[in-house]
Amino acid sequence: MSTSTLTSPRVATPRSAALHGVWPLAVGLILAALPLVLSPYLQELVLKIAIYAIFALSLELLVGWTGLISLGHAAFYGIGAYITVLASPESDPGALAVLLPLAMLGAGAYALVVGALSLRTKGVYFIMVTLAFAQMAYFVFHDTKVGGGSDGIFLAIRPLLQVGPQVLVDLEKPLHMYWLVVACLAGCYGLLALIQRSRFGHALAGIRANEQRMRATGYNTFAYKLAAFVIAAMLAGAAGFLTAARSGAVNPEMLSWHESGAVLLMIILGGLGSLRGAVLGAVAFILLKELYSAEAIMGPAARHWQLTLGLTMIFFVAVMPNGLIGMAAQWKARRNAAAAKGERA
Description:
Blueprint: H1 3-7, H2 14-33, H3 40-66, H4 74-86, H5 96-118, H6 123-143, E1 153-154, E2 160-163, E3 166-170, H7 174-197, H8 199-216, H9 221-247, E4 249-250, H10 257-270, H11 275-292, H12 295-298, H13 305-319, H14 327-344
Antiparallel strand pairs: 1-4, 2-3
Helix pairs in contact: 2-7, 3-7, 3-9, 3-10, 3-11, 4-5, 4-6, 4-9, 5-9, 7-8, 7-9, 8-9, 10-11
Protein name: Branched-chain amino acid ABC transporter permease
Pfam families: BPD_transp_2
Membrane topology: Multi-pass membrane protein
C-alpha cells in the first residue's frame, strides 16, 4: 500500500456524503426534542448516555484513529470534573464560560505531560504507562484533602452563562442542562468529523496503519500523536465538566481504571474507527448496564450485573468483531457468500 493511500481521504459518492451529513443532524434534532415527550427518569438516562457518548468519542480519537490504546483516559475525565467543582464559588454560581474551558485546559495540560512521556513507549508499555499516570492522579484525589478523600466533594451551585443581567443558561434548570449536553455532544461530533476529513486526521490514519512509513515520508509522528492525545483529553475533560454539573458531586472513582475500561468497552462494542460506532457503543453499554442492574427486571441477578454485562460483552465481540456499526455489512457479506455458494452448487 502506498503512502498516498494511507493519507488520502476515502472517495465518497454524493449520495453517501449527503447521508453521512443528514443522519447526525436528524439525530441531533430528535435528541433536542426528546424532553417534550420523555419522563424525568428517561430524560436523565438520555443525559447520562449523551455525556458518556462524548467521553467515548474522545477515546475514539486515540484508539480508533491513531491506534493508541490507553487505559488511563478516565484521568482526564476525572480531572475535568474535579476542576469544575474546585474552581466553582461556594456561595455563588460559577461562570459556565469560564469553568468549561478551564476543565478542558486542565485536562489538556495534564495530558501534555503524560503524553510527552508515555508516547515514547509503544504497545503494552504505552498501556501500562498511561494506566500508571491515571492511578497517580487517582491517588492524589483519593488520599489528599484537596479532593475530599474517598468521599469526594460536592458542587454548591451549578454554573450558569450570563450576559449582563440576562441569564442565558442556568444549569439548575433540567432543560438547560439537557440542551447544553446535547449541544456539547453535537459540537464534539462535528469537531471530530472535521478532524477526520482534515490532513491532520489523514495523518493519524497513516500513523495507525504504518508509523514507520509515515516517519520516512517526513511526518513528525510524535507531534501528531501528542496533539491527538491532548485533544482527546480536552474532550474527556468536557465530559467530566458535564458530569460534575449534572450530578453535583465528584469522587475519585471517576479517575479509576474501571472507568477507563468501561469507555474502552463502549468503543469496541460500537465498532472501532467510527464516530457513529462510538456513540452507538455508549448507548448500548449504558442501556445494558441499566437493564442488568434493575432488580424489577433481573431479580436477584441484578446484584451480579457486572458478571452478566461482562458475558454479554464477550458474546458481542465474538459474534460481531466489527462492532454494532458493522452488523449490516457483516450480514450482507454472509448473505452474498451464501448466495454465491448456492450458485456454485
